[in-house]
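Q: What structure does this chain adopt?
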Amino acid sequence: MNKTIANGKVAVLSSPGYGAGWSTWNPDYPEMVFDPGLVDLVLEGNEEKILAYIVLKWPTAFMGGVEDLRVDWLPEGVDFVIEEYDGAETIVIKDKMKWITA
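A:
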């Protein structure tokens, strides 16, 4: 899977706005989370180009959450999951999760 890496950090796309999740509502396209072309367009901030890119690359993808896409930079090699509640996505890093032991 192609990724954008800079200064030891990996660009990860998520949609923190309420209404619809980006990666969580597109489980058939896990590469969307890291797609370098999409990362560049989100950083550029051109929503028209973002929409056109997505339609060309993933014509059957759910488009909800696109307007709220953002790039987070995570340390290379870190384990994480993107959780969703009411459409709002949150990146949760494995090592920062507090576990309860029974």
